[in-house]
Amino acid sequence: MNRRKALKNIGISFGSITFSSSILSILQSCQSNEIDWSPDFFTKKQIGFIDRIFEIIIPETDTPGAISLKLSRFVDAYIYRNTPSDSQSELNKEIEELTDVILSNENQKSIDDVNDITLEKYLSNHLDSSDFIESNGNNYSQVFGLFRQMAVRSYKLTEYVMTNKLGYVPIPGYYDGNVDV
Questions:
Q1: Beta bridge partner(s), residue 139
Q2: Which residue blocks in the chain are alpha helix, DSSP H?
Q3: From CA 75, how far away is CA 118, in angstroms rounded?
Q4: Across residues 135-161, what is the average pLDDT?
Q5: Residue 164: left if φ>0, alpha if ψ -120 to 50, beta else—which one?
Q6: 144 CB contacts (<8 Å, ≥6 apart)?
Q7: Do the Cβ atoms of 50 and 75 come closer than 8 Å?
Q8: Contact 41, 79 (CB under 8 A)
Q9: Which residues, other chains included, contact 13 with Cβ-Cβ below 8 Å and sequence gap of 6+?
Q10: What are the beta bridge partners of residue 133?
Q11: Does residue 27 register a pLDDT over 60?
Q12: Following DSSP, what letter does each residue of 68-87 receive, concatenated?
């Protein structure tokens, strides 16, 4: 399976989220206050990187940001439970290669050493363009686009956004039994 197809499949799977019982259980598990939470799919280092990228995309303002809404937990659980293993390995490989490219360009040893301004520069320069192609032929602009897609879609599915911003009504429709015919 090629990388472009794997990234496209992951994006499509995020686009076709339905509220099944498994999705609702993922949403509920992301809202828990577990201190000893460990990721299922990503590594701790990758979760830290994804948290930083998501916080750049959805920052904390007068509304909660990506870190306080724990979007990376939802994305981790969603990918682990709903994405085929070959696509998972492709995504994991892409993220590792992306962090390695950023580290080599910035002459750093750890992704934690790269400041948020530099990460924001990479994100803004390469998000909607296809010019972040490395010598190995990989287009990392697609990975940044996937990060944005995952962040925005998981943000829209949080309890805070559903109830406070999108006008979620648990029982849709209005019933008035006393209407003239």
A1: 133
A2: 3-15, 21-30, 44-57, 71-82, 85-106, 116-126, 141-156, 159-164
A3: 23
A4: 84
A5: alpha
A6: 53, 122, 123, 126, 127, 132
A7: yes
A8: yes
A9: 82, 83
A10: 139
A11: no
A12: TTTHHHHHHHHHHHHS-HHH
Q: Rounded to the nearest 5°, which phi and psi values hold at 132?
A: -95, 60
Q: What is the pTM of this model?
A: 0.72
Residue 32 in this model has a pLDDT that exceeds 60: no
Token pair for 131: 């010019």
pLDDT at residue 61 tops 80: yes
Q: Tokens standing for 177? A: 């039994």
The reported pLDDT for the residue numbered 13 is 66
Q: 97: how many CB neighbours lie within 10 A of its CB? A: 16
Each residue of 6-29: b (16+ CB within 10 Å) or e?
Answer: bbebbbeebeeeeeeeebeebbee
